Amino acid sequence: LNIAVLAGDGIGPEVIEQALKVVNAIGKKYNHEINLTHALTGAVAIDATGNPYPDKTHEVCMQADAVLFGAIGHPRFDNDPSAKVRPEQGLLAMRKKLGLYANIRPTLVFPSLLHKSPLRRELIENADFVCIRELTGGIYFGDKGRNETRDKAWDVCEYTKPEVDRIVRLAYEYAMKRRKKVCIVDKANVLETSRLWREVAQGIEKEYPEVETEYLFVDAAAMRIIQWPEGFDVMVTENMFGDILTDEASVISGSMGLMPSASIGLHTSVFEPIHGSYPQAAGKNIANPLGTVLSAAMMFEYAFKLMDEANEIKDIVNKSLAEGVVTVDIADGGKAFSTSEVGDWLA
Amino acid sequence: LNIAVLAGDGIGPEVIEQALKVVNAIGKKYNHEINLTHALTGAVAIDATGNPYPDKTHEVCMQADAVLFGAIGHPRFDNDPSAKVRPEQGLLAMRKKLGLYANIRPTLVFPSLLHKSPLRRELIENADFVCIRELTGGIYFGDKGRNETRDKAWDVCEYTKPEVDRIVRLAYEYAMKRRKKVCIVDKANVLETSRLWREVAQGIEKEYPEVETEYLFVDAAAMRIIQWPEGFDVMVTENMFGDILTDEASVISGSMGLMPSASIGLHTSVFEPIHGSYPQAAGKNIANPLGTVLSAAMMFEYAFKLMDEANEIKDIVNKSLAEGVVTVDIADGGKAFSTSEVGDWLA
Ligand SMILES: CC(C)[C@H](C(=O)O)[C@@H](O)C(=O)O
Ligand SMILES: CC(C)[C@H](C(=O)O)[C@@H](O)C(=O)O
């Protein structure tokens, strides 16, 4: 199993280290040869090479069966969004060059953490849905610019039918293995790109008569995620809407530090926790490694199709929660373990 | 006081009727001559004229000191977002032609309705913020289209400095009368239009040294609205982000049926409840009129600068809540009054 490891910035290296302990333990137990190749990305890559996603890193990713990713972002870039080189550009370049067209984020609820949710318990107890966000198109990658006097700016949102087709199809395939419900989120009452999405979706819908399809405008979806999260099974949407809605959805579980994600690509796939670089905690050995560990579980499931291995990782994470072997963010006044202690225990 | 009345579709006419009872009662008590001119908009206008915002309606609005608006939208258009003529087009035409550049939505919490919020009570008890959404620019009004083979679509998001300037300035003026905090929501790490917003905002920020300014990416804002709504005072953002975030914010109060809004314009201003046409309830005399009544209060405040009248309306609404003279959506097992009974009681 050839894994490219991109630890990145902030708490990235610390949480990745724990996930690798678990990956190696699983490799040993199940007799897999694990080859790890580390490469630079983010602010650390800017410092070393001037480029947040260096060619060398891209090579490493292209040759890997999967990429395990930590986080990128550094506060020194935060107040200057127009800086020439920014860590986020590395992320966008990686998505585009690896063809990571589908970002998959399960919204999982952990019973022992329900009280951490901002939502009332009875609304989320049975929430279990997946957001699938298109990741290489839309307004993120369209033409953008300024007029000569720089007092007018534009960003173009663009989609082609094949781009919509592959991701909507993925959502239906996903739903077939779950509760057979797809919710397509768009703004077809205003946007032409959304009308294209809806046209394509209406075609695919017919190929999956067993799946119940719903179309929801993005503003209504933003409400429904908080009003009735249990109503969703698989949600699929375009890049910008997905950015907003997946982050909104990640909050309702109350367990953001535990949330994994997968970005399915044409060339390889990337697995990363959703929590970001969390610079305030960097270097303190307090960050929660479980999101990264669960991302590794997704890697075994999606990239390697090794379900036993994936399930064993999920089980041990549940056990760590049940036994209270957790970091300070979820220790709730009980004993808080350090990042590395949790990693060692899991491994 | 010349008021254009656009009742629109669904429950629009019923809730507008109650608001007019209150407006007339206030006019009588405070000795204002109230001139009401009714005009068509939405699906009813399509039926009558083929146009959801007929020229005649526009004339009436242009001559009015303020527009009181019900709701538009009809289910027969819902599954066909590409229909040639749609009620929403009337809304967008009205916004553009009246120059309604700023949509203002207070997020109010009513103590007696806190248990209706999907959020835990302790998170929202002291929530009190205002979302200001740019309403006549951005991706709503930019160029949109398809290529010849119709397998590629685009929508252009565009902003000019003057467009950003006037709305950000409005937000600061608003904040000066409140808790002096402005949160500017954008996606400056990805979008050129957002970088323009931030440039303009950073200039205006300097003119208001007393105001505390914060810049938040839209994905982070979508999280913060649920995690810590009490942290906001005045939030300002572009059209599409505002569409999503204002709807998300409207849910957290648990009192959507009571939420008013104002759209400040170059030519006149429009006051409307946020709840929409709610076709399932139309004609049943059960819809909650309080959102429209509170929109009338905003009309007295913003369009007529008549604070006593505005406050008297707000007071009587609070009294109706305290005494349980409310419609079925908030009656909570107690006696439910009809739409018109609530209107009569308030008047
Ligand atoms: C950092 C930023 C460019 C990125 C995005 O908007 O896609 C992030 O918010 C995410 O969701 O991964
Ligand atoms: C109906 C639709 C065009 C409209 C919008 O997106 O602006 C609505 O959602 C709103 O917020 O008033």
Automatic annotation (TrEMBL), chains A, B:
Cofactor(s) this protein cannot do without: Mg(2+); Mn(2+)
Subcellular location: Cytoplasm
Molecular function in Gene Ontology: 3-isopropylmalate dehydrogenase activity
Binding-site positions, substrate: 95, 105, 133, 219
Assigned keywords, A-Z: Amino-acid biosynthesis, Branched-chain amino acid biosynthesis, Cytoplasm, Leucine biosynthesis, Magnesium, Manganese, Metal-binding, NAD, Oxidoreductase
Domain Isopropylmalate dehydrogenase-like, first and last residues per copy: 2-346
EC number: 1.1.1.85
EC primary class: oxidoreductase
Source organism superkingdom: Bacteria
Alphabetical list of NCBIfam families matching this protein: leuB (TIGR00169)
Cofactor note: Binds 1 Mg(2+) or Mn(2+) ion per subunit.
UniProt keyword Protein biosynthesis present: no
Residues reported in the UniProt entry to bind Mg(2+): 219, 243, 247
Assembly and interaction partners: Homodimer.
Family: Belongs to the isocitrate and isopropylmalate dehydrogenases family. LeuB type 1 subfamily.
Protein name: 3-isopropylmalate dehydrogenase
Site entry (Important for catalysis), positions: 140, 187
Catalytic activity field: (2R,3S)-3-isopropylmalate + NAD(+) = 4-methyl-2-oxopentanoate + CO2 + NADH
